[in-house]
């Protein structure tokens, strides 16, 4: 059974860079599919952050494109998110997920809360 | 403001039916697949409909999806208290090269 697990700091200072990793078990990310990050600010809806293919091809939310980078590490079977110049508006639960061919997300991590505060 | 528009809330009594709409445009719903997610408090979102109307394994047939033009619909029949939560539609936008989610609809079982 495939599982995804996010890891990273729960607290980030304003202007700093967030780094999160999603470890995938029970499935090789080299087989295919895109792998994505989705976030949910407190009290708000889901927001797509971006996705990466095992080849390294990426797509990003246009509103975050200047600050976001998603990479993949096939040897560790994991992918990572970097979001720089963090502000309070970036406070959210961050989920990693597998993206299917129809741009649906079928396997999700449990999510990790990231708070931006000094 | 989300590109995909959903009603903020819907409600019905147990056993009844609710319908959630998701309105978009030709660059997203009109030419791409729609998916639906159930998000219960404290859990990860759960895929309940993919590719407009496909139910993943384990999803009861009380949940059904459809698409017509630039709009999509999620129907939940035989409503149960365990269905209370937030529901999101999703699609890909060809012009933006971006995945999209609707703003979410809160389902309340009266």
Mean pLDDT of chain B: 96
How far is the N terminus from the C terminus of chain A? 39 Å
Total number of helices of chain A? 0
Beta content of chain B comes to over 45%
- Largest β-sheet summary of chain A: 7 strands, mixed
Q: For the CA atoms, what is the radius of gyration of chain A? A: 13 Å
Which residues of chain A sit in consecutive blocks of at least 5 with pLDDT less than 50? none
Overall mean pLDDT of chain A stands at 96
Note the beta-strand portion of chain A.
Answer: over 45%
Backbone structural class of chain A: mainly beta
> How many DSSP-defined strands of chain A?
11
Residue share in helices of chain B?
under 10%
Low-confidence stretches of chain B: none
Helix content of chain A: under 10%
Look at the helices and sheets of chain B and give the structural class: mainly beta
Tally of helical runs of chain B: 0
Oligomeric state as shown: heterodimer
The SSE order of chain B reads: EEEEEEEEE
Helix and strand run of chain A: EEEEEEEEEEE
**Number of DSSP-assigned strands of chain B:** 9
Global morphology of chain B: globular
């Amino acid at each position: 059974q495939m599982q995804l697990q996010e890891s990273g700091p729960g607290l980030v200072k304003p202007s700093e860079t967030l780094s999160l990793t999603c470890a995938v078990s029970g499935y090789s990310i080299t087989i295919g599919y895109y792998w994505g990050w989705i976030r949910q600010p407190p009290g708000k809806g889901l927001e797509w952050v971006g996705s990466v293919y095992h080849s390294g091809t990426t797509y990003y939310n246009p509103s975050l494109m200047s600050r976001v980078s998603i990479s993949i590490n096939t040897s560790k079977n994991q992918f990572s998110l970097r979001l720089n110049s963090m502000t309070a508006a970036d406070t959210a639960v961050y989920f990693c997920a597998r993206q299917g061919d129809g741009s649906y997300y079928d396997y999700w991590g449990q999510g990790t809360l990231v708070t931006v505060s000094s | 403001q989300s590109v995909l528009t959903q009603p903020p809330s819907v409600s019905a009594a147990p056993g009844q039916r609710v319908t959630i709409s998701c309105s978009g445009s030709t660059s997203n719903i009109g030419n791409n697949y729609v998916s639906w997610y159930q998000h219960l408090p404290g859990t990860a979102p759960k895929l309940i409909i993919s590719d407009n109307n496909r139910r993943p394994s384990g999803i009861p047939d009380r949940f059904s999806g459809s698409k017509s033009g630039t709009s999509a619909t999620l129907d939940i029949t035989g409503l149960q208290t365990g269905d209370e939560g937030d529901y999101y539609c999703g699609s890909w936008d060809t012009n933006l090269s971006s995945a999209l989610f609707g703003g979410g609809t809160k389902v309340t079982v009266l």
